[in-house]
Amino acid sequence: MPHNKSSNLFMTAAASIISRLSGLASLVVVGWFLTEEQLGVFAIAVGITTFTLILRGGGSELVIQSMAPGDFKQMGGGLPRTTLAFAIVGIVLTLACAVPAMRYYDQPTLGATLLWLAAALFVFQIGAYQRSKVGAALQFRALAVIEIATAVAKLVAAYWCASHGWGPMTLGIAQLVGNSIQFVGVLVIADLGWNDLRVKPGWIRPMILTLRLPIVLSVMTTVSLQIDTFLASFFAPVASLGVYYFAKNIAVAPVLMLIGAVRTVLAPYAARARGNPKLERENIEAAFAFGSVFAPLALMFLTTIYPSLSRMLWGDKWAASVWPVTLGTVLLVYPTIQGLLEGPVMGLRVWTEYMSILSWRSASKAVGCIGGFVAIWALALPTEATALALTIGVGAIGSVVAFFQIRSFLSRCGIDREMVTFELHSPTIYSVLAVIATHGLASGLMDSIAFLSIDGRQTAAIECALCAVIYLVIALALLRFAYIARLKVMLAIVPAPVRARLCRIMLIPETAVEAVHD
């Protein structure tokens, strides 16, 4: 049984990473076929749905994600009914905005893009109840298989649509295809019975009381995701908006991989730890330990390879995205650590803390976006600098806010403040130094082969490979030696079967970790 649990956890994390990689691969496909203007139209549609779909599932999705196995019988079918009702409202609002939006932005394909996006989210929402039941039963292996199938379907759909001229609608259609496959998969294995869907007389009032805070959180979640894109759509040229949206999604790819992989595991375990202060604190410490060590390393890896990777994949087509991605990943370190902490926060249903995170995140994005445009106006920056100015504005404000929120939250949880401050600074500094060292070594090696007659993309591919290998070697050295004490603490608070496997991977004696645990 322990072996099965360990395998399931690893498979779940791997499936989540594969899913995020498919999203990144979809952006690569989009980069091949779509223009900056076409991606800008899709970004406008995403910004509009921030408000037409603002109610999402009425907050039911947040409650569903943190349900323990016994909660399904107690709550019955009220949650899926609530989710369906709010999802229908979202579809209607989006359709109502389609024609006015097409006229305002003067983009003929915007209406159809909005429709595909609304349909994709509708399918995702009505499948939330089934997904949660499978997750609450810790059927991670089944979820992992479905996640991988969904990822493959999205990528195939994105390639087919982009290569056949669907333009801005490409990513919306790909999301709908993937969400539909996921919906069917979890429906088959969720083992829903009539008791799971039955409601008791007078169920509406208890449901309203249950959702009164989660619905506010749901609204804030929606706003925090794309408020910057929505505001930018009113000021930025469509092509510049496309570059900003493209760069932002490239930069957040490692963030989504980390958060998705860790939250999938931590949230259900945190839900089971509710009511036990010691276990609750351990869940929070596990999330922070993982984030403080791995978030900077993962993000700086993209910073290291992206300049050469961009030239290898797209030539000079997306050259305008290089600096926004490079700086954007650096500025995402603290928001990523904060995002990892959301896993146990959601599992423990600390809604007030989650509300604080979302409200400050939304405000920071709005202020950063407006600040970026003020800088563009005040400094008379050229149009080409729009994406970079937005990235710096949104990223800098968001990073500062996340840093202080992390410190404040962990202090309230009883975790030593000086230790937290040290862990927030040292891994980031080490990772930045690793990037500098990597580029220095790679540049010297590239100069030594400059005499070879190879074209630009081949040169970029060699440089990208060199940067990746050198950085990974440095990162592994940091993990094994500079972070060894922190790794022992982190490994000591994860489940024993997982701990044993991680110790073997990192060449750390398990007895040393067990001593920390004791």
Structural notes for this entry:
It is a single chain. The chain has helices spanning 2-33, 36-52, 60-65, 71-75, 78-105, 110-126, 128-136, 140-163, 170-189, 194-197, 204-232, 238-251, 253-273, 277-314, 322-330, 333-347, 351-379, 386-412, 417-448, 456-482, 484-492, 496-506, 510-517. It has 518 residues and is mainly alpha-helical. It has 23 helices and no strands. 51% of the residues are buried. The mean pLDDT is 80. The chain is globular.
- The average pLDDT is 80
List unreliable stretches of 5+ residues.
none
Helix content: over 70%
Structural class: mainly alpha
Question: In angstroms, what separates the terminal alpha carbons?
Answer: 23 Å
Please give the count of helices. Answer: 23
The main pleated sheet reads as: none
Give a brief outline of the structure:
The protein is mostly helical and 518 residues long. The chain has helices at residues 2-33, 36-52, 60-65, 71-75, 78-105, 110-126, 128-136, 140-163, 170-189, 194-197, 204-232, 238-251, 253-273, 277-314, 322-330, 333-347, 351-379, 386-412, 417-448, 456-482, 484-492, 496-506, 510-517.
What topology emerges from the helices and strands here?
Blueprint: H1 2-33, H2 36-52, H3 60-65, H4 71-75, H5 78-105, H6 110-126, H7 128-136, H8 140-163, H9 170-189, H10 194-197, H11 204-232, H12 238-251, H13 253-273, H14 277-314, H15 322-330, H16 333-347, H17 351-379, H18 386-412, H19 417-448, H20 456-482, H21 484-492, H22 496-506, H23 510-517
Helix pairs in contact: 1-8, 1-13, 1-22, 2-6, 2-11, 2-12, 5-6, 6-9, 7-9, 8-9, 11-17, 12-15, 12-18, 13-14, 13-16, 14-15, 14-16, 14-19, 14-20, 14-21, 15-18, 16-17, 16-18, 17-18, 18-19, 19-20, 21-23
